Amino acid sequence: MPAPLLELHDVQKYFRVSTGTFPRRKIGWVKAVDGVDFSVYPGETLGLIGESGCGKTTTSKLILLQEAPTAGAIRFDGEDVGALRGPELMRYRREVQVVFQDPYSSLSPRMRVGDIIAEPLQIHTNMTREALATRVSEVLELVGLQPDLARLFPHEFSGGQRQRIAIARALATHTRLIVLDEAVSALDVSIRAQIMNQLEHLQASLGVSYLFIGHDLATVAHISHRIAVMYLGRIVEMADSLELCAKPLHPYTQALFTAALPAHPDQRHEKLALAGEVPSALDPPSGCRFHPRCPHAMPQCSRETPAAREMAPGHMVACHLY
Amino acid sequence: MAAIDEANVVAVAAPRDVAGARRWAKLARELPVVPIVILLPFVVMALFANWIAPYDPTEPIPGAKIFEPPFWMSGGSRHWLLGTDFQARDVLSRLIFGARVSLIVGVAGTIVAGGIGTTMGIVSGYFGGWVDQVVMRVTDAWLALPALVFALFLATMVGPSMWNIVIILGCVYWTRYARVIRGEVLSLREREFVKLAEIAGAGKLRVILRHILPNVLNTAMVLASLTIGVVIIAEASLSFLGVGVPAPQPAWGSMLSDGRSMLMVGDWWLTVFPGTCILLVVLPTQLLGDWLRVRLDPQLRNL
Amino acid sequence: MAPLLQVSDLQTYYASFGGSRIVKAVDRVSFTLNEGETIGLVGESGSGKTTACLSIVGLLPNAARIVGGSIEFAGEELTTKRQADLRHIRGRQIAMILQDPMASLNPLFSIYRQVAEPAYYHRGLRRRPLRERVQELLRAVRIPSPAVRMREYPHQMSGGMRQRVVGAIAMAGGPKLIIADEPTTNLDVTIQAQYLDVLKDIQERTGVALIFVTHNLGIVAKMCDRMAVMYAGKIVEQGSVRDLFRSAKHPYTRALLGSMPKLGSKEPLFAIPGQPPNLARLPGGCAFHPRCPQAMPKCAAEEPADRAFAADWSARCWLLEEDAKEKYAGAVA
Predict the structure, then answer these.
(1) Which of B56, B251, C25, C296 has a beta carbon 3.0–4.6 Å from B101's, enabling a disulfide?
(2) Which of residues 9-68 of B touch C (CB under 8 A)?
(3) B7 CB near a chain C CB, below 8 Å?
(4) What residues form DSSP beta bridges with C31?
(5) Terminal CA-CA length for chain B
(6) pLDDT band at residue C12 under the 50/70/90 scheme
(7) CA-CA distances (angstroms) from residue C208 to A156, C5, C90?
(8) Which chain B residues contact residue C45 at CB under 8 A?
(9) Separation of alpha carbons A139 and A205, rounded Å
């Protein structure tokens, strides 16, 4: 196996919670990300799935240097991202880009599409105007848009076209990793399929890696090579996408599969055995975070945090059942 | 509903110039005629005062008596249409040159206030943390001072002159910008295009100039159009109180002040004309401000 | 038995720019719904599914008008009713669940007060019976310890709980029909599954009919008996969910099903080319023809009629007409 492009090693992010304006009192820590390990390999799509509040967005913020981790290390190309300075940091900023969920909020309304796409290039290179325009045309064509659309403003495009523009911008700097943070969740079904196919096509031709963050199991499973399942700041299971679909091991992963909507009306409906809602990360349950909702909970589960174990090659699960 | 959303209706393929021409035609149709028609004569007066005004506004008219009435009253003369003041100076000429003072102070004072306030608001909103705390507490303290008294105090400190007044009023009226713009920036900072720029490695200055500033300019424009009137009135008030534009130079506020004592003996033209001028300039600027707000704020535009 | 709801040839138009442009948001839509049945109204944004539902409950925005067709509910014609009469039907017999529960709940009132309101006005309940009724409703949507939670305010509840409260309010008047407009879009996957189970449960116990407005075909597969697929204001195909999932006739229905990712399968998705239509400037003929993989010259010229080819299965597509002719020709030869 080649060396990983991005590596997260026991990454933690705690947020301090306070009340009152003056004086402020600390009431505790939100453990948004609590010991996460995973790697993204070159040319691979890693799916990160979980419900709201599981820490997947915080994880993406850590990778994008929007937040600094409380503990642990993020490595890109083997180098600790937190220690990058100057030109090294700029190189990271150039090679890691993001596409967000909302195509309406991610394009500046007062800039022309061409300028939006060219911005990262202007920051990182000394390209001439002609060279910039050529590169903008190139990436617009890559994402299936006509190059002459560069002179229009974002409001002249539909949601799906805007998302293509956002992808074009993310690709412009010869990016190596794109974080796709719910990038297709807001799109209509037919457009979502277009964008997903386009993303797969781009990966095949450019070799770019994706970290695909989502909440819809079918979508994440379709586009990802491997999937990591997150629950309350921890990764509970990680496996090859098809392997996970065939043999989900962790009770939470199993619940996600039960909750997933059927692809056909004849598919057997199982009632969801999962009770209650995701507890607050401010005061997470002891031991295994999932034990208060778990149908298989044992006494041990509330006392000890289960360690990740490799059940099959590449199939990790953190559960006392195994 | 998205389907009738104007954004979708805009032609993606339509040639640019045609769309541009259509936009101008639409703008011309929607232009607020009444405030512009009222305001335009004053702007012309201010710009071409030297040519329009029949007399030197600072010198007595040779051969005229003091307190001559307007031409249509008995004793009035067609040589000084709106009468003369206590130094036998032509009221009409003083009004015309007064327009220049009012508009210059109004516009320049607003620009100074807008510049200070917008900068403060952007710095406060974008950097947050203790910078925000400091700026906002200063703003609070500023707001707690009665604006006119504060301006009066500053004017007596630095001495009266038109450009001093401009700077003083700018320093007094920036707080409104700072508050509103800060709020706008707080929400902009969370918008994804700002985050995308930061993630792509854009520096703070670049983010502010390319992503924040263009998106708060609309708000600043609307605030400016609403502030001009306030600044003009403040200048008139200062001049009325004798700390505005210094004496021989004509300003509507000092004209009001000079004519005040003669109101009792029936020489109404000395106060009514400058008073009316102030009203006729302030009212349309407010109307224009309302129109701008509706035009520039997409939330209100469709109402 | 007469159907509970019969919508026939419904036309709802928006007038934009002072009437200079007409947008046919709902164009000759017909469908029926029996008691206790669930129909899924499927379509992408702008297909007119929400407008169709707002027409039924009489909550159209000012710019929209019903310009033709009829809506018959429990034997009564709704399109000609005055607003005052509609108010009695709405809430009591037809209830609506919207996408954003926070927008449907008043943040200033307790859950009790909001759930009690319909029972107070429509059923005249007071004091203890009212309290019991509220608890019963909250229990029906499986809110744990209803006696305690009914004293809470909306901001104290999670999104899933709030949406259940909205469900309880919808049930309060004892309706015969609930219209649910994308009720689970903002919910997490497991919370969505729980909520859909609750709705199914309620339907089994009370026999209420449901209209599910959604763009998510998985919800249709899970919840609905019948489905109607909307495109550009028209129903292009409708029939039983099983039939349509098994062998849809209209290319758009087939494309929608093909663009749905399936768990455990990596087969490439079928992507419909092009952009969703702009209702203000629809192409001539069949509105889907510019994106249709099987478009023929005829499709751009003329609009296909709604053609029924089974008891409860119809579609608007020229392919079906051609198909029928060929078969007929084959039979003659």
Answers:
(1) B251
(2) 9
(3) no
(4) C7
(5) 15
(6) very high
(7) 43, 12, 14
(8) 1-3
(9) 13
Residue that the structure tokens 């023809």 belong to:
C289
**What's the token pair of residue A317?**
């699960």
Rounded Cα–Cα distance for residues C239 and C248 (Å):
9
CA distance C171 to C257: 32
For residue A10, the tally of other CB atoms under 10 A from its CB is 12
- Counting residues of chain B whose pLDDT is more than 70, the rounded percentage is 89
Confidence bin at C332 (pLDDT 50/70/90): very low
Please classify residue C124 by burial: count the beta carbons closer than 10 Å to its beta carbon, then call 0-12 exposed, 13-18 middle and 19+ buried. Answer: exposed
pLDDT in tens, C17-66: 555 678 889 999 999 999 999 999 998 888 889 899 999 988 888 888 89
B198 contacts on A by Cβ (under 8 Å): 66
Give the number of other CB atoms < 10 A from CB of residue C1: 5
User: Beta A45-49 vs A209-214: how paired, if at all?
Assistant: parallel
Rounded Cα gap, residues B257 and B237, in angstroms: 9
- Cα–Cα distance, A231 to A253 (Å, whole number): 9
Report the sign of the C-alpha dihedral through residues C35, C36, C37, C42, in that order.
positive
In 3D space, the residue among C53, C51, C1, C60 whose CA is nearest the CA of residue C24 turns out to be C51
Asked if the model's pLDDT at residue B253 lies above 80, the reply is yes
Interface test with B, best of A60, A108, A191 (most B CBs within 10 A): A108
Pick the residue of B191, B194, B199, B210 with the most A CBs within 10 A to test the interface with A by mutation. B199
Q: Cis ω on the peptide bond leading into residue B54 (within 30° of 0)?
A: no
pLDDT tens digits, residue range A159-217? 889 999 999 999 999 999 999 999 998 888 888 999 999 999 999 999 999 999 998 89
**pLDDT confidence of residue B9:** 36
Sign of CA dihedral C26, C30, C31, C32: positive
